[in-house]
Amino acid sequence: MSEGHVSHQSHTRFYVVLITIVIGVIFIVLMLDNNKNQSLSGALAGTVGDERQEKDTVAGDSSAVSGSASAATKIKAKSGRDLAFTLAFSDVPTVKSKAKIQSVAVTFNQVPDQITINDDKLELSNLQQVTLEMLGYEGALEFSGHGLSVDGTAGKIKVNDVALVSKGKIDIAFSGLPYTWLKVEDLQMSNLPLGEGDGNVQVGERLNYELKNDDVTVNDFEGALTVDRNAQRVLALAGTTSGIEVSGDVLGLNIR
Question: Where are the domains of the chain?
Answer without folding.
Answer: 1-79, 83-255
